[in-house]
Amino acid sequence: MKFNYSDPNRLAISNALIIAAFAMTVNSLVLLLSAGKPALLLIIGVNLLVLGLSYLIFRYTLEKFIYEKIKIIYKTIRNLKLPKDTDRRAMTGGTLDKVNQEVIEWSETKKKEIEELKKMAKYRREFLGNVSHELKTPIFNIQGYVLTLLDGGLEDTSINKEYLLRTEKSINRMIAIVEDLETISTLESSELQLNYSRFDIVALTRDVIEFLEIKSKKRNKTVVFGGSYDKPIYISADKERIRQVLINLIDNSIKYGNPENGRTKIGFFDMDENVLVEVTDNGSGIDAADLHRVFERFYRTDKGRSREQGGTGLGLAIVKHIIEAHDQTINVRSTPGIGTTFAFTVKKS
Question: Which domain holds residue 60?
Answer without folding.
Answer: 8-93
